């Protein structure tokens, strides 16, 4: 979010009075007379302005002595979109904390990943969000636990360790301090049976509007046979995580401003990481209003934005898989790239012990692709070299392809690989690295869309026009791609 929004008291208070969902997650409202902090959409009676303070994060409100509201569930609020646009130290730290890095590696481990000292990291976080890394991690644990208590029937002891608490005592003390009641107090109604440990159903919230149809269509056209599918408005796929593997299903629930995530993991230790990846996959932390405001200033894009409110950028749950898909898609059709990816899965992917419908394999790992013989699969020699170079870079040289890394450095590393040019790097940055300003200026479909709208298609002209779309050029790209669906049926 814009870190200065909490300094505009009148704007924030108007949002609270109108329960404006566009501001959900951008700030939290603390009420001095009750000692409670809430989301802007809280259904409780609006407090008088003189009794209100605004905070940029739930952790900052808790550090000031406020307890989380038990009506509006601050733990379910969408994430702040500001950290999507930014790729600086604080933004990367917040993403890593959300993934649970402090629980496994501590503050020193987090600082090491960011190549700074723990003291410097603490100072930067204090300046930006009002609290240090330990407080942020503590709030994340409490919010995860509350979400699981409220939405699942898992035992409280299991929830404590999934959420990242080191002990039951720490769990109880934190929940008491955060919510002013013990964890057991939230179990006042029976939960829907979750069919055994490892199987869960969770609701992940977003800011409306949300064009789920366009998102599901995009995934359906690119679904890799054996690994993913879109059936009856539901996205399903196999997934491999650091400590577990399994299957996920995501179904939009438009009327509740949420998606329903059903998951079956071999080990719930990766739950936090999976939730964050699913949020990224469906771009649930986007702020459609802010994006539309910028893009609609261009008369060229305004009709497209108006026609598809809430268009999202398809993300990725596995950056390596997405990068392989990008290389396979160079200068061929979407269907052709999908066919090539399916061949890799069939011959090199690990089969599921028990196929689940059309889901039969896990996507091949970088280690497998790095040593595989890729001849005879319909791949050009150039694609084979590019895939093997990418696989070796990830498997042996530490190349990471996710939202927590330094984007500029990673793009530089990608461009050094044979067969990876600006288009491929931009596509990976857009979908795997979460860069909302990534812009594949040389993309043929993008040029075709611009040509239909009467804009010059020279590279210089495209680059110049795109400057007014910043920092949302990736969204502008998807709006332009979507304008072609009525003509060609593909992007």
TrEMBL record:
CDD domains: ENDO3c. It is an enzyme of class 3 (hydrolase). Residues 91-189 form the HTH araC/xylS-type domain. InterPro entries: Ada-like_dom_sf, Ada_DNA_repair_Zn-bd, AlkA_N, AlkA_N_sf, Alkylbase_DNA_Glycosylase/TA, DNA_glycosylase, HhH-GPD_domain, HhH_base_excis_C. Keywords: Activator, DNA damage, DNA repair, DNA-binding, Metal-binding, Methyltransferase, Transcription, Transcription regulation, Transferase, Zinc. Its cofactor is Zn(2+). The keyword Cell membrane does not apply. One of its GO terms (molecular function) is DNA-3-methyladenine glycosylase activity. SUPFAM superfamilies: Ada DNA repair protein, N-terminal domain (N-Ada 10), DNA-glycosylase, Homeodomain-like, TATA-box binding protein-like. GO terms for cellular component: cytoplasm; protein-DNA complex. Pfam families: Ada_Zn_binding, AlkA_N, HhH-GPD, HTH_18. It comes from the Bacteria. GO terms for biological process: base-excision repair, AP site formation; DNA alkylation repair; methylation. It catalyses: Hydrolysis of alkylated DNA, releasing 3-methyladenine, 3-methylguanine, 7-methylguanine and 7-methyladenine. PROSITE patterns: HTH_ARAC_FAMILY_2. Gene3D superfamilies: DNA Methylphosphotriester Repair Domain, DNA-3-methyladenine glycosylase AlkA, N-terminal domain, Helix-hairpin-Helix base-excision DNA repair enzymes (C-terminal), Homeodomain-like, Hypothetical protein, domain 2. Its EC number is 3.2.2.21. This is DNA-3-methyladenine glycosylase II. It comes from Thermosporothrix hazakensis. The lineage of its organism: Bacteria, Bacillati, Chloroflexota, Ktedonobacteria, Ktedonobacterales.
